[in-house]
Write a structure and sequence with these properties.
The protein is 7% helix and 40% strand. It is globular. By secondary structure, the chain is mostly beta strands.
Length: 523
């Protein structure tokens, strides 16, 4: 989900993936911004969120101090600099019209806390994964091998693909096996990501490092007008706020987060930026940044250290109708956004961390200084990037989705979704147009994510969306006691066996049961 707090301006397709024999141990455990009006707002509920967290912990007979481990404001306090690491671009091989990508989920070690080695995991490496580029209209095949010591799956977050290729819990595969999904890319240009999604182990495997970006490119005028040279003027930024003890053990569960002494390191593309500001030399005047919040729970707001504006061009599900000047871009867990900067002087980007679970990070971090070394003069951005037709929801089917809590268990519509049998199932039909009211009956922060299709925001806490919130989303914030209304149309794919998922993308909440199934049937 993206929210800018200030704005200054083929039916029935389905394919079957293959499993064949070829870690980590499983643990317990979304356009312009500027929301205004009388709705329920985040800051108003942060105190309530913390109180609910404390109450939940009291149920477990444990006490702790919220935020006492956060190290506060790091802006301007970095003592070191290092070059920005750019994730590798994974090269595919194309034959008979299909591009094949090869990934291996594997264990390794990495410095999550500076100077301390942690046991980690990654795709094709020890931490995080390479970036993939997909092209609209092309067909891809992914051969993904599980070299972990536990079951895993790989979900293509935000992609509009068949449910049996989606990488949800029903697609989990065992250690030593290879999963080979194949599908046509129907998505338009956007930034997606991939990560594990097996039952009960998503948080653990993601915090260990299993995450990577996917860039979808198309042949629209907007794509032609924006920077697209990966690593030169099209730059990925994978931001994370994690939890670790002094020995480097990365935490993911409630019991882990309640240990007495924890640090909450902030990372950019796998590099700790607690005391280090990364550097990037921009050899083109205009640089495009694709930012992902890959944290398990914390909220990350991106801003310029000089108070200037960012030119946002896309939400997580595609281009905005027009480039929009914003002061900040707020990303809940799983959220993405794209922005450009035209620079003549160096600018430092900051990450503002807000705790969204029982404990987490806090403070402002100078994570990247971009220094221009360019002489080109780019053309003005197009006045229009995209056409977004707003839904008329008067004839849409209405549904109520409630995000619940029962002690330490999370639920959707009263069902704790820790198994496929126990979770609630939403049944719909191909071609259905629906409007959902997502109500947060807890005082906790939630990040609502819908698989399969993008949605439009119709209401945010009783108020109509404005600015970048008029774009397309797949993940959006639902504050404690708040609600959102979203509208979508179920297109292209139906299946009577495989389901999509809808869930909270605070990964601990997902693993604790805040997940339901979505089955799209032939009409």
């Amino acid at each position: 989900m993206t929210n800018n707090t200030e704005s200054t301006s083929g039916t029935g397709r389905h394919h079957k993936g293959e499993h064949r024999k070829g870690g980590d141990t499983a643990g317990a455990g979304h356009s312009k911004g500027g929301r205004k009006g009388k709705g329920l707002h985040r800051r108003k509920f942060l105190g309530g969120m913390a109180g609910a967290g404390l109450a939940a912990v009291a149920v477990a007979g444990t006490t702790f101090s919220l935020l006492t481990d956060a190290k506060g404001n790091k802006a301007g306090a970095a003592t070191n600099t290092a070059s920005l690491n750019i994730p590798d671009l994974l090269e595919g091989t194309t034959s008979d019209g299909t591009t094949t990508f090869t990934l291996t989920a594997q264990t390794g070690t990495h410095e999550v806390l500076s100077g301390v080695t942690s046991d980690t995991a990654g795709y094709n490496g020890s931490y995080l994964g390479p970036t993939m580029k997909w092209t609209t209209g092309s067909t891809v095949l992914l051969n993904i091998t599980n070299d972990l010591d536990a079951d895993t799956s790989v979900h293509f977050h935000g992609a509009h693909i068949p449910p049996d290729m989606d990488g949800g819990p029903q697609n989990a595969f065992a250690s030593g096996e290879t999963w080979s999904p194949t599908f046509e890319i129907l998505d338009e240009a956007k930034t997606l990501w991939y990560h594990p999604h097996a039952l009960g182990t998503t948080a653990e495997q993601v915090v260990q490092g299993l995450a990577g970006l996917i860039i979808v490119e198309d042949e629209t005028d907007a794509t032609a007008a924006l920077p697209t040279e990966y690593g030169v003027d099209d730059i990925p930024l994978v931001l994370q706020c994690l939890a670790t003890d002094s020995a480097g053990d990365v935490k993911y569960s409630l019991s882990g987060y309640l240990q007495n002494t924890l640090s909450f390191p902030v990372l950019c593309n796998g590099t700790n930026v607690d005391d280090t500001t990364l550097t990037f030399t921009a050899t083109k005047t205009r640089t495009r940044f694709r930012v992902l919040n890959a944290s398990p729970s914390d909220i990350i707001t991106v801003q310029r250290g000089d108070g200037g504006t960012l030119t946002q061009v896309a939400t997580e599900q595609g281009y905005l109708t027009e480039a929009t000047e914003v002061k900040t871009i707020r990303l809940v867990a799983g959220g993405r956004a794209e922005f450009v900067m035209d620079l003549s002087d160096a600018v430092t980007l900051q990450a503002v961390i807000t705790t969204a679970w029982v404990r987490g990070g806090s403070g402002t971090f100078d994570f990247l200084t971009v220094t221009p070394d360019a002489s080109d003069s780019p053309d003005d951005l197009p006045s229009s990037l995209n056409t977004i037709e707003r839904y008329d929801t008067s004839g849409f089917t209405a549904r109520e989705i409630t995000l619940d809590q029962d002690g330490l268990e999370m639920a959707i519509n009263g069902a704790v979704g820790t198994t496929m049998d126990s979770m609630a199932t939403i049944m719909t039909t191909l071609g259905s147009k629906e409007i959902w009211t997502i109500t947060n009956s807890t005082m906790l922060e939630h990040s609502f994510h819908l698989h399969d299709v993008p949605f439009q925001l119709i209401e945010i806490n009783g108020e109509e969306p404005t600015g970048v919130d008029l774009g397309w989303f797949d993940t959006y914030e639902v504050v404690g006691g708040g609600s959102i209304k979203i509208a979508m149309e179920f297109t292209d794919f139906a299946d009577d066996t495989y389901m999509y998922m809808l869930h909270c993308h605070l990964l601990q909440h997902e693993d604790e049961g805040m997940m339901a199934g979505l089955m799209v049937m032939e009409s």
